[in-house]
Design a protein that fits this description.
2 domains, 4-stranded antiparallel β-sheet, single chain, Aspartate Aminotransferase, domain 2, alpha/beta, 7-stranded mixed β-sheet
């Protein structure tokens, strides 16, 4: 049986002759000798296709999925119910084989679902314009920062430490290469420290970025933060949100947000061991020409039939690279479609029901876990579907015990917040039952 990569020595010889090289080493002649690896790669010997298949199956069986475990882990990715129609619609060949809609006459399906998605996101966030999505929530925050810097001609970004720490890492990485100064504001009792925020927002600040519900699940005082942000002329107020929370919370657009961003994974997209996910960004009309990516519009064709076109496309494929609003603004097309199908299927009442159930069940879980006093609340603030508790038991020990009971436990805050020792962030979605929550509480109570 042939190796999995079936190039023979004869094949290699013919390819080298075709390009005028004597050996494979000639292909790397531009690499200085002193930095070359002087040994073989530490790889197993070649394997056949059946051997590779067996090996990969064996490796995959070492993973535990949410089909096997009851999930109470969140921190930015959530186990929400996904209606079966979502998978059915996005599996239709006219959608999953679609490509960038440069030619509207042959891309009406793609253009329509992007238009519908943009409309739904505007309705959800209370903003005027949404683009065709971004890579993920972290990238969306970085894009919002770039846009704010571009609009204000300022280089300072003020961001709360209650924003998802992984998103802040993405901002720092991209911001470093863009010459942005990132100022982080500490939290106080789980929310943004308003006094410190007020002292750091100056006439050099391009944007103030907060998240609500924040990384701890707590609802921030967006109105007070908006007033601080807009106390400086031109400074933009950027709000990162969980889109599910907008089923019961006021839209950020109604609270003075200039830009709304977030991660759309909870809108009909499975956990998938980490992605791909969906970043969203929406703005008010006065900033739409600085919005990265594409905007799809609705029009009439020559026969007066409804049709769709790319209306605004300030990205490097369409204009000079140096004039582009961004060079990292590719959208997640199939996930955009999934989000549109999910929101359309649920509607206003359905989304509100999801948000209410998640909130009520999270508060029930919080009450059950903390009622004996073994696990104590870390914060005393209103929360959405996530909450933090502490105990004398290390988080890793707790999560190992939970795995033994087929429960995927919470997130250790100590990873990014060393001041919060033995603090666990639990997430409770509408999928969790009373029995599952009671079992979590019972198992936690028995851990010593």
């Amino acid at each position: 049986m042939y190796p999995y990569i079936p190039n023979t020595q004869e094949d290699e010889k013919r390819m080298l002759e075709a390009i005028g090289a004597n050996s494979i080493d000639d292909l790397f002649s531009d690499i200085p000798e002193n930095i070359r690896l002087k040994r073989e790669l530490n790889l197993n010997s070649s394997m056949s296709e059946t051997e590779v298949s067996k090996d990969m199956i064996k490796l995959s069986q070492e993973n535990k999925s949410i089909n096997e475990l009851t999930c109470f882990l969140g921190a930015g990715a959530y186990d929400h119910y996904i209606p079966s129609i979502v998978g059915h619609i996005i599996s239709k060949s006219e959608f999953y084989t679609s490509y960038t809609p440069y030619q509207p006459e042959v891309s009406q399906g793609t253009l329509q679902y992007v238009f519908e998605y943009q409309t739904l996101m505007c309705n959800l966030t209370g903003m005027d314009v949404s683009n065709a999505s971004l890579y993920d929530g972290g990238t969306a925050i970085a894009e919002a920062a770039f846009m704010a810097s571009n609009i204000t001609r300022r280089d300072q970004i003020v961001i709360s430490k209650t924003v998802n720490p992984q998103a802040r890492e993405v901002l720092k990485t991209y911001g470093h290469l863009q010459g942005l100064e990132i100022v982080e504001i500490k939290d106080e009792d789980g929310v943004t420290n308003l006094d410190e925020l007020r002292n750091n927002v100056t006439d050099k600040t391009a944007a103030v970025i907060v998240q609500s519900p924040n990384f701890f699940g707590i609802i921030e005082d967006l109105k007070s933060i908006e007033e601080i942000a807009h106390s400086q002329k031109k400074t933009l107020f950027v709000t990162s949100v969980d889109p599910i929370s907008l089923g019961i919370l006021r839209a950020p657009g109604s609270l003075g947000a200039d830009v709304v961003v977030g991660e759309g994974q909870s809108l009909g997209i499975p956990l998938s061991f980490g992605g791909p996910y969906l970043g969203f960004i929406a703005v008010n009309k006065r900033h739409m020409r600085k919005l990265p990516g594409r905007i799809v519009g609705q029009t009439l064709d020559k026969d007066d039939k409804r049709s769709y076109v790319l209306t605004l496309q300030a990205r490097e494929q369409h204009i000079r690279r140096e004039k582009a609003t961004s060079n990292i603004c590719s959208n997640q097309g199939i996930n955009t479609l999934a989000a549109a199908v999910y929101l359309t299927t649920l509607g206003k009442k359905g989304l509100r029901e999801v948000a209410l159930q998640a909130t009520q069940k999270a508060h029930y879980a919080f009450k059950e876990i903390t009622k004996s006093g073994k696990y104590k609340p870390l914060f005393d603030k209103p929360f959405f579907k996530e909450f933090v508790v502490t105990s004398d038991v290390p988080v890793d020990d707790i999560n190992k015990k939970l795995i033994d009971e087929r429960i995927l436990g919470g997130y250790s805050l100590e990873r990014f917040y060393p001041q919060y020792k033995n603090a666990i962030l639990y997430a409770v979605t509408e999928k969790r039952t009373k029995g599952e929550i009671d079992k979590l509480s019972s198992v936690l109570e028995g851990i010593k």
